[in-house]
Specification:
Largest sheet: 8 strands, mixed
Strand content: 15-25%
CATH class: Alpha Beta
Number of helices: 9
Strand order of the largest sheet: 3-2-1-4-5-6-7-8
Number of domains: 1
CATH superfamily: NAD(P)-binding Rossmann-like Domain
CATH topology: Rossmann fold
Helix content: 25-40%
Shape: globular
């Protein structure tokens, strides 16, 4: 005999509306471990979407502190954080944890280059929310080496990009590097590996663009964990919010890329 359904019963289930999307594997998503690299504007939006989408084990890595100019595009930061110069990773983790008591959101204050490889290894999916090439390539190399899916996002003013890397067969971030990227790396680092002093202007940022890119990143993570890699982005998505365009640009797998080269 079927149990009678009480009026409004479905409204008592936090994830009830998501369960109506048949292909989403909420059980696997809830049990997964997710690593978010970067706790700035993009990281704030990504973590918000992860918590609301049923991700329950999230680790956030960032070395920076909150400043007042972060507040026009970072949902979880407050003026008190800027006054106290709170670390972004822990401030974001603390506020995200309050959204759902069932979640475990932790912040790690450090450079991603100092992150133990075991953190990558124990993660089921990695979301990159970084603003510099060197850190991106570091994350990309670890994910490719360990076979961890990487969903990388970036924004500049009203444009943005998302690339999904599913090792070993999809093109990685290094495959899409061009001469401009390498020149930027050369400016930042000398041939000895020591930091080089130079002026690097702040980049334009706009919250609606950040929200769009973060939403795409988390949707791709949901696909990966729900076994729908076949429906993920296969190349590089370029979004232009000013002209209302989104294009998937082909990124060929570079046979000379050391991360793909077969022994």
């Amino acid at each position: 005999m079927n149990r009678p359904i009480k009026p409004g019963e479905s409204d008592e289930d936090r994830m009830e509306r998501s369960r109506r999307v048949g292909w989403i594997d909420l059980d696997r998503i809830g049990k997964s471990r997710t690593l978010v690299i970067g706790a700035g504007a993009l990281g704030n939006e990504v973590v918000k979407n992860l918590v609301l989408s049923g991700f329950e084990d999230i680790t956030i890595v960032d070395m920076d502190r909150v400043v007042l100019s972060n507040l026009n595009r970072c949902l979880f930061f407050r003026e008190e954080d800027a006054k106290r110069r709170s670390f972004k990773a822990t401030a974001l983790a603390d506020m995200a944890q309050r959204m759902n008591a069932a979640c475990r959101v932790s912040g790690m204050v450090m450079k991603v280059q100092d992150l133990d490889e075991g953190v990558f290894r124990s993660s089921d999916v990695v979301l990159g929310c970084l603003d510099n090439i060197a850190a991106r390539l570091h994350v990309n190399a670890h994910c490719c080496h360990l076979g961890r899916p990487l969903i990388d996002g970036g924004t500049l003013s009203t444009s943005g990009k998302v690339q999904v890397v599913i090792p070993p067969d999809s093109p990685c971030l290094q495959c899409s590097m061009n001469r401009t990227h390498y020149r930027a790396l050369e400016r930042r680092f000398s041939c000895t590996g020591s930091d080089t002093t130079f002026f690097e202007p702040k980049l334009a940022a706009e919250i609606t663009t950040t929200s769009v890119i973060a939403a795409i990143q988390v949707r791709e993570a949901i696909k990966v964990l729900s076994g729908r890699e076949d429906r993920c982005l296969h190349h590089l998505l370029r979004y232009d919010g000013l002209d209302n365009q989104a294009l998937e640009l082909e990124v060929p797998l570079d046979p000379d890329c050391g991360l793909h080269r077969r022994q």
